[in-house]
Amino acid sequence: MTNSLAEDRAAQTLGAFLKDRRQRLDAAGLGFGGRRRTPGLRREEVAQRAHISPTWYTWLEQGRGGAPSPRVLHSLAQALLLTAAERDHLFLLGLGHPPKPDTGLQEGISARLQRLLDSWPMTPATVATASWDIIGWNRAAQLALTDYAAMPASERNILRRIFLDPPTRAAQSDWEAVARFLVATFRAETTRAGETARAQALVKELSSASAEFTRMWRDNDVRTTGDGTKTIRHARVGEINFEFSSFAVDGRPDLKLMIYNPMGARDAEQMRRLLQQHDGPTDQR
Predict the structure, then answer these.
(1) How far apart are CA 144 and CA 78, in angstroms?
(2) Domain 111-277 = CATH 3.30.450.180
(3) Are 136 and 114 in contact (CB under 8 A)?
(4) 25 three-class SS
(5) Sheet containing 227-234: which strands, arranged edge to edge?
Protein backbone atom coordinates (compact mmCIF):
# COMPACT_ATOMS: atom_id res chain seq x y z
CA MET A 1 0.00 0.00 0.00
CA THR A 2 2.79 2.38 0.96
CA ASN A 3 4.78 1.50 -2.17
CA SER A 4 1.71 2.05 -4.33
CA LEU A 5 1.11 5.50 -2.85
CA ALA A 6 4.76 6.42 -3.33
CA GLU A 7 4.66 5.24 -6.94
CA ASP A 8 1.49 7.25 -7.55
CA ARG A 9 3.08 10.39 -6.13
CA ALA A 10 6.20 9.84 -8.25
CA ALA A 11 4.07 9.40 -11.38
CA GLN A 12 2.12 12.58 -10.60
CA THR A 13 5.36 14.52 -10.06
CA LEU A 14 6.76 13.23 -13.35
CA GLY A 15 3.57 14.22 -15.15
CA ALA A 16 3.62 17.72 -13.70
CA PHE A 17 7.25 18.19 -14.78
CA LEU A 18 6.52 17.01 -18.32
CA LYS A 19 3.51 19.32 -18.58
CA ASP A 20 5.43 22.32 -17.28
CA ARG A 21 8.31 21.82 -19.75
CA ARG A 22 5.89 21.21 -22.63
CA GLN A 23 4.11 24.49 -21.95
CA ARG A 24 7.41 26.41 -21.97
CA LEU A 25 8.26 25.48 -25.56
CA ASP A 26 7.86 27.91 -28.47
CA ALA A 27 5.43 26.21 -30.84
CA ALA A 28 6.09 28.56 -33.74
CA GLY A 29 9.87 28.25 -33.33
CA LEU A 30 9.57 24.48 -33.54
CA GLY A 31 7.52 24.54 -36.72
CA PHE A 32 4.06 24.30 -35.17
CA GLY A 33 2.64 27.62 -36.32
CA GLY A 34 -0.60 29.44 -35.73
CA ARG A 35 -2.05 31.47 -32.85
CA ARG A 36 -2.87 29.46 -29.73
CA ARG A 37 -4.96 30.02 -26.66
CA THR A 38 -2.49 28.15 -24.45
CA PRO A 39 1.30 28.39 -24.42
CA GLY A 40 3.67 25.68 -25.58
CA LEU A 41 3.20 22.54 -27.64
CA ARG A 42 0.19 20.26 -27.61
CA ARG A 43 0.58 16.77 -26.14
CA GLU A 44 0.33 15.10 -29.54
CA GLU A 45 3.07 17.39 -30.86
CA VAL A 46 5.46 16.36 -28.08
CA ALA A 47 4.57 12.72 -28.76
CA GLN A 48 5.32 13.26 -32.45
CA ARG A 49 8.72 14.80 -31.68
CA ALA A 50 9.53 11.97 -29.24
CA HIS A 51 8.23 9.23 -31.59
CA ILE A 52 5.88 7.75 -28.99
CA SER A 53 2.13 7.19 -28.82
CA PRO A 54 0.10 10.37 -28.16
CA THR A 55 -2.17 8.35 -25.88
CA TRP A 56 0.71 7.09 -23.79
CA TYR A 57 2.27 10.54 -23.53
CA THR A 58 -1.08 11.87 -22.33
CA TRP A 59 -1.18 9.15 -19.70
CA LEU A 60 2.36 10.04 -18.58
CA GLU A 61 1.33 13.65 -18.02
CA GLN A 62 -1.73 12.43 -16.14
CA GLY A 63 0.39 10.22 -13.88
CA ARG A 64 -0.97 6.92 -15.13
CA GLY A 65 1.36 5.86 -17.93
CA GLY A 66 3.53 3.46 -15.95
CA ALA A 67 7.31 3.59 -15.66
CA PRO A 68 8.88 4.85 -18.92
CA SER A 69 12.01 3.17 -20.26
CA PRO A 70 15.38 4.97 -20.45
CA ARG A 71 14.98 5.13 -24.23
CA VAL A 72 11.63 6.91 -23.91
CA LEU A 73 13.02 9.34 -21.34
CA HIS A 74 15.94 10.17 -23.63
CA SER A 75 13.47 10.80 -26.48
CA LEU A 76 11.32 13.01 -24.26
CA ALA A 77 14.36 14.97 -23.10
CA GLN A 78 15.25 15.68 -26.72
CA ALA A 79 11.67 16.47 -27.70
CA LEU A 80 11.28 18.93 -24.81
CA LEU A 81 14.72 20.50 -25.39
CA LEU A 82 15.75 19.81 -21.79
CA THR A 83 19.05 20.99 -20.40
CA ALA A 84 21.46 18.43 -18.92
CA ALA A 85 20.21 19.22 -15.41
CA GLU A 86 16.57 18.93 -16.51
CA ARG A 87 17.28 15.62 -18.25
CA ASP A 88 18.89 14.23 -15.07
CA HIS A 89 15.87 15.40 -13.09
CA LEU A 90 13.53 13.72 -15.58
CA PHE A 91 15.36 10.41 -15.11
CA LEU A 92 15.31 10.75 -11.33
CA LEU A 93 11.55 11.28 -11.44
CA GLY A 94 10.91 8.50 -13.96
CA LEU A 95 13.37 5.83 -12.86
CA GLY A 96 14.82 6.91 -9.53
CA HIS A 97 18.35 7.39 -10.89
CA PRO A 98 20.12 9.69 -13.37
CA PRO A 99 20.84 8.55 -16.92
CA LYS A 100 23.98 6.55 -17.54
CA PRO A 101 26.73 8.85 -18.78
CA ASP A 102 28.33 8.54 -22.16
CA THR A 103 31.18 6.20 -21.27
CA GLY A 104 33.11 6.24 -24.52
CA LEU A 105 36.71 7.32 -24.16
CA GLN A 106 36.62 11.10 -23.95
CA GLU A 107 38.99 13.32 -25.92
CA GLY A 108 39.20 16.13 -23.39
CA ILE A 109 37.46 18.44 -20.95
CA SER A 110 35.76 21.81 -21.17
CA ALA A 111 37.86 24.94 -21.64
CA ARG A 112 36.55 26.28 -18.33
CA LEU A 113 37.69 23.20 -16.42
CA GLN A 114 41.08 23.31 -18.17
CA ARG A 115 41.52 26.94 -17.07
CA LEU A 116 40.82 25.85 -13.50
CA LEU A 117 43.52 23.15 -13.71
CA ASP A 118 45.97 25.64 -15.19
CA SER A 119 45.37 28.08 -12.32
CA TRP A 120 47.31 25.70 -10.01
CA PRO A 121 50.89 25.96 -11.31
CA MET A 122 52.40 24.25 -8.24
CA THR A 123 49.68 21.65 -7.70
CA PRO A 124 49.36 18.60 -9.96
CA ALA A 125 45.74 18.04 -10.97
CA THR A 126 44.05 15.59 -13.32
CA VAL A 127 40.56 14.68 -14.48
CA ALA A 128 39.85 10.96 -14.75
CA THR A 129 36.96 8.77 -15.81
CA ALA A 130 35.54 6.02 -13.61
CA SER A 131 37.86 3.54 -15.34
CA TRP A 132 40.92 5.74 -14.65
CA ASP A 133 41.37 7.12 -18.16
CA ILE A 134 43.05 10.53 -17.77
CA ILE A 135 41.30 13.10 -19.96
CA GLY A 136 42.55 16.34 -18.40
CA TRP A 137 45.70 17.54 -16.62
CA ASN A 138 47.81 20.62 -15.89
CA ARG A 139 51.52 21.30 -16.41
CA ALA A 140 52.37 20.41 -12.80
CA ALA A 141 50.82 16.96 -13.34
CA GLN A 142 52.80 16.58 -16.56
CA LEU A 143 56.06 17.26 -14.72
CA ALA A 144 55.42 15.39 -11.47
CA LEU A 145 53.25 12.49 -12.68
CA THR A 146 53.20 11.70 -16.42
CA ASP A 147 53.51 13.48 -19.74
CA TYR A 148 49.96 12.60 -20.78
CA ALA A 149 50.14 14.95 -23.78
CA ALA A 150 52.83 12.79 -25.36
CA MET A 151 50.59 9.70 -25.33
CA PRO A 152 47.67 8.65 -27.50
CA ALA A 153 44.37 8.99 -25.62
CA SER A 154 43.99 5.20 -25.53
CA GLU A 155 47.21 4.87 -23.48
CA ARG A 156 46.34 7.40 -20.77
CA ASN A 157 44.91 4.78 -18.44
CA ILE A 158 46.35 4.70 -14.92
CA LEU A 159 45.47 1.05 -14.26
CA ARG A 160 47.23 -0.05 -17.42
CA ARG A 161 50.31 1.98 -16.55
CA ILE A 162 50.47 0.82 -12.93
CA PHE A 163 50.32 -2.86 -13.88
CA LEU A 164 52.06 -2.92 -17.25
CA ASP A 165 54.61 -0.06 -17.28
CA PRO A 166 57.82 -0.75 -15.25
CA PRO A 167 58.90 2.93 -14.89
CA THR A 168 55.47 3.83 -13.51
CA ARG A 169 55.69 0.96 -11.03
CA ALA A 170 59.19 1.99 -9.92
CA ALA A 171 58.00 5.56 -9.25
CA GLN A 172 55.54 4.39 -6.54
CA SER A 173 56.83 4.34 -2.97
CA ASP A 174 54.26 1.63 -2.08
CA TRP A 175 53.21 0.00 -5.35
CA GLU A 176 51.03 -2.67 -3.71
CA ALA A 177 48.93 -0.10 -1.84
CA VAL A 178 48.56 2.12 -4.90
CA ALA A 179 47.58 -0.80 -7.13
CA ARG A 180 45.00 -2.11 -4.65
CA PHE A 181 43.52 1.35 -4.25
CA LEU A 182 43.14 1.76 -8.01
CA VAL A 183 41.56 -1.68 -8.51
CA ALA A 184 39.08 -1.17 -5.65
CA THR A 185 37.98 2.28 -6.83
CA PHE A 186 37.79 1.05 -10.43
CA ARG A 187 35.40 -1.74 -9.40
CA ALA A 188 33.16 0.59 -7.38
CA GLU A 189 33.09 3.55 -9.74
CA THR A 190 32.62 1.70 -13.03
CA THR A 191 29.69 -0.17 -11.49
CA ARG A 192 28.11 3.06 -10.28
CA ALA A 193 28.72 4.86 -13.59
CA GLY A 194 27.52 1.94 -15.70
CA GLU A 195 30.81 1.53 -17.60
CA THR A 196 30.17 -2.17 -18.19
CA ALA A 197 31.70 -2.59 -21.66
CA ARG A 198 34.75 -0.42 -20.99
CA ALA A 199 35.36 -2.09 -17.61
CA GLN A 200 35.01 -5.61 -18.98
CA ALA A 201 37.47 -4.92 -21.80
CA LEU A 202 40.02 -3.46 -19.40
CA VAL A 203 39.63 -6.31 -16.89
CA LYS A 204 40.11 -8.86 -19.68
CA GLU A 205 43.23 -7.10 -20.96
CA LEU A 206 44.85 -6.69 -17.54
CA SER A 207 43.92 -10.19 -16.38
CA SER A 208 45.65 -11.73 -19.38
CA ALA A 209 48.78 -9.59 -18.91
CA SER A 210 49.17 -9.35 -15.12
CA ALA A 211 48.82 -12.10 -12.52
CA GLU A 212 48.97 -9.40 -9.85
CA PHE A 213 45.93 -7.64 -11.28
CA THR A 214 44.07 -10.96 -11.42
CA ARG A 215 44.90 -11.61 -7.76
CA MET A 216 43.67 -8.19 -6.65
CA TRP A 217 40.58 -8.29 -8.86
CA ARG A 218 39.52 -11.59 -7.28
CA ASP A 219 39.59 -9.99 -3.83
CA ASN A 220 36.43 -8.03 -4.74
CA ASP A 221 37.50 -4.96 -2.77
CA VAL A 222 35.58 -1.70 -3.31
CA ARG A 223 36.55 1.82 -2.27
CA THR A 224 35.67 5.41 -2.98
CA THR A 225 38.42 7.66 -4.29
CA GLY A 226 38.07 10.08 -1.40
CA ASP A 227 41.36 11.49 -0.18
CA GLY A 228 44.71 10.25 1.07
CA THR A 229 48.47 10.56 0.61
CA LYS A 230 50.80 9.64 -2.22
CA THR A 231 54.58 9.63 -2.58
CA ILE A 232 56.31 9.86 -5.95
CA ARG A 233 59.95 8.87 -6.47
CA HIS A 234 60.88 11.50 -8.99
CA ALA A 235 63.98 10.91 -11.12
CA ARG A 236 65.05 14.58 -10.99
CA VAL A 237 64.20 15.88 -7.53
CA GLY A 238 63.72 12.77 -5.42
CA GLU A 239 60.65 11.92 -3.36
CA ILE A 240 57.66 14.27 -3.36
CA ASN A 241 54.85 13.68 -0.86
CA PHE A 242 51.33 14.73 -1.77
CA GLU A 243 47.95 14.87 -0.10
CA PHE A 244 45.31 14.07 -2.71
CA SER A 245 41.61 14.87 -2.77
CA SER A 246 38.93 13.77 -5.23
CA PHE A 247 35.97 15.89 -6.33
CA ALA A 248 33.00 15.12 -8.55
CA VAL A 249 32.68 17.14 -11.77
CA ASP A 250 29.25 18.78 -11.81
CA GLY A 251 27.08 17.43 -14.60
CA ARG A 252 29.49 14.56 -15.28
CA PRO A 253 29.07 11.89 -12.59
CA ASP A 254 31.50 9.65 -14.50
CA LEU A 255 34.40 12.07 -13.97
CA LYS A 256 36.53 12.92 -10.95
CA LEU A 257 38.92 15.82 -10.38
CA MET A 258 42.09 14.70 -8.58
CA ILE A 259 44.20 17.35 -6.84
CA TYR A 260 47.66 16.51 -5.46
CA ASN A 261 48.80 19.12 -2.95
CA PRO A 262 52.43 19.06 -1.73
CA MET A 263 52.28 17.93 1.91
CA GLY A 264 54.93 20.15 3.44
CA ALA A 265 57.44 22.94 2.83
CA ARG A 266 60.06 20.48 1.54
CA ASP A 267 57.60 18.95 -0.93
CA ALA A 268 56.54 22.40 -2.16
CA GLU A 269 60.21 23.23 -2.64
CA GLN A 270 60.67 20.03 -4.65
CA MET A 271 57.84 21.10 -6.93
CA ARG A 272 59.41 24.56 -7.31
CA ARG A 273 62.74 22.99 -8.23
CA LEU A 274 61.04 20.73 -10.73
CA LEU A 275 59.31 23.64 -12.42
CA GLN A 276 62.46 25.76 -12.48
CA GLN A 277 64.79 23.12 -13.91
CA HIS A 278 62.31 21.66 -16.35
CA ASP A 279 63.67 21.25 -19.85
CA GLY A 280 61.29 18.49 -20.97
CA PRO A 281 58.35 16.55 -19.56
CA THR A 282 58.89 13.60 -17.27
CA ASP A 283 57.05 10.29 -16.96
CA GLN A 284 56.70 9.21 -13.36
CA ARG A 285 53.13 7.91 -13.06
Answers:
(1) 43
(2) yes
(3) yes
(4) coil
(5) 134-137, 125-129, 252-262, 238-249, 227-234
